[in-house]
Specification:
Strands 1, 2, 3, 4, 5, 6, 7, 8 and 11 form a 9-stranded antiparallel beta sheet that branches. A two-stranded antiparallel ribbon has the order 9-10. The protein is about 25% helix and about 35% strand. The protein is an alpha+beta fold and about 190 residues long.
């Protein structure tokens, strides 16, 4: 997962959403998009993530709805919704959409045609001023969270990500969506 996240962070593999939608046959779902400027990244030569496992396949909409109830949002600090689509060519393409078009973006992310592929949505907690990427893996029972927007650090050990804070902020909401377990880690290169 960390290699995939690194590729995403460096913005590899981009193409137009209209082409993607036409190829997948999503009909009238055509959100206005702009290239995304990714926020955050790893701390020095460290990457952190939390891998969540669910009791049944989930959707981007279901997890976002659960997280909204605890202060999270799909609107990132620059005022846009940032999401990623993958395809059979393993091309990771990020899109930046207007907040009022969130339903269209969620329809694309949760489309049946995308179930065999990885998709992602950035989420942000405005009160805590931090966020990251929720990456939904094929089959949708495994979802990774990568704290990549204004990553919170352990105050007494700032070389480490405060994974405990993220677990405290995410797990209660995700339990309502069928969370079975999680694994949190930080890796130094």
């Amino acid at each position: 997962m960390l290699l995939v996240e690194r590729q995403l962070r460096h913005g590899r593999h981009r193409r137009g959403l209209a082409v993607f939608i036409a190829e997948r046959g999503f009909g009238d779902v055509q959100p206005e998009t702009q290239p995304l400027k990714l926020l955050g990244g790893s701390v020095g030569s460290r990457d952190a993530d939390i891998d969540f496992t669910f009791t049944r396949p989930t959707t981007v909409r279901a997890l976002l709805d659960a997280l909204i109830a605890t202060g999270w949002s799909a609107v990132v600090p620059v005022g846009h919704v940032a999401y990623m689509l993958n395809d059979g060519d393993d091309s990771y393409e990020w899109y930046d959409s207007k907040p009022e078009l969130i339903d269209e973006a969620l329809a694309v992310l949760d489309a049946t045609a995308n179930l065999p592929y990885t998709v992602a949505l950035n989420v942000y907690h405005a009160e805590a001023k931090t966020g990251g990427m929720l990456m939904f893996h094929p089959g949708r029972t495994d979802v990774s969270f990568v704290p990549s927007i204004e990553r919170r650090l352990v105050p007494s050990a700032p070389q480490f990500t405060d994974l405990a804070w993220y677990l405290h902020a995410l797990v209660p909401a995700l339990i309502t969506a069928g969370l079975r377990g999680y694994e949190a880690r930080e890796v130094r290169y």
